[in-house]
Specification:
Blueprint lengths: L1 E2 L16 E4 L3 H13 L4 E4 L2 H10 L4 E5 L7 H11 L6 E6 L4 H9 L4 E4 L4 H56 L4 E4 L2 E8 L7 E9 L2 E9 L4 H13 L11 E4 L2 E4 L2 H15 L6 E9 L4 E7 L5 E3 L5 E3 L16 E6 L5 E5 L1 H4 L10 H11 L5 H16 L8 E8 L5
Parallel strand pairs: 2-3, 2-4, 4-5, 5-6
Antiparallel strand pairs: 1-3, 7-8, 8-19, 9-10, 10-13, 11-12, 13-14, 14-17, 15-16, 15-18, 18-19
Length: 421
Amino acid sequence: MTVVQPKPAAFDARSGARPVLVVDDSRAQRRLLVKTLAKWGFETIEAASGEAALEISASVDIELVISDWLMPGMSGVEFCRAFRALKADRPAYFILLTAQTERERLAEGLGNGADDFLSKPFHVAELKARLRAGERVLTAQRELIAKNRLLTRTLDELHEVHAAIDRGLRDARDFQQALVPDRFIALPGMDISMLYRPSGHVGGDLVGLFPVSDSRYGVFSVDVAGHGIASALMTARVAGHLSGTTPDRNVALAVENGVTTMHPPERVCATLNDLLLREFDTDKYLTMVLADVDIAAGRIIMAQAGHPSPAIQRADGAVSFVETSGMPIGLIEGAAFGRAEISLGPGDRLVLYSDGLTECPSSEGELLDEAGLAGLLDAHRNAAGLDLIDALTSGLIAHLGGEEFPDDLSAVVLERRSDQR
């Protein structure tokens, strides 16, 4: 039976509050509880048994329950256990009326889902205190549920945002991969192979080349400081400045008397330094090796801007490193850049690479360094082209002990063929 009472000035009684379920096989005990609760502004629902109370709970939103422990049929403890199973995802506060005083019996009630106990016969002040405590707990539970729902919605929205970002990054990765030309290019007398493996969706490394004439090419290896979108955007900008598809925008190229030629690499680095300082208001900078390659003669002029020293492997397998000097690009105004000239004979090769190779750590944290790179080149002296690229990558994976590289990997290998075709 539902008992609805007018609401005088009541403690903690809320407009629209859910009713209190009063469960007791004693009609007199129920009436006493209902009248007491009505004075405090509570609406109540009565049940004479645990079975009846469970049926009511299945159709009515109940948050506060006062139930006798000892009842015929389903006891208060059994009803409490069934009620908790029914309302597993909803806040509720369950008070057991009991004459039990043994700790073991009280622990049984708590173990079956009871929140509090009220001794029989109950004292009005004690009942009010128990209800106050229950209201505080229910308020906290409602707030927690609301916050959890908000958190769930927020996480769902973040998941959607992250999914969109991930799709965008995959598209950016495809775009950045397109900035790198064919991984293997066979030119008259020289083969050029490229390694490009970003550590994330997008990377800060870039390798490439652009034609100057039929037998002359500009070749570069770039490493923008840091990772992620900002670095990738800068590599795209650099690619635009060294583009082979739009030579009129390539800052390395010049036209003299109708003939395309290439500025000295150290001057190109200085030009890029000025452009980046003017175009980017950021702390990003890059290192680079830029080479002017005369394929027919095997002569290479290059500038080094803070980039790792290029490796030369001669036909007999000996490995050495080209030492030049130069500041990174985009770091300070008026930076100077060193210049080096080398010649590749038949069977010789030049390797331009980013520090992702030499600073690749082992599982113990030991870097590969130049000696390790020289060892890999020596171990695979008979490999060439993309076979050499694959061998270097496998060697780095073995050194790292896995394939999740902490930094981008990039390299350009120029190999002067011994047959001179």
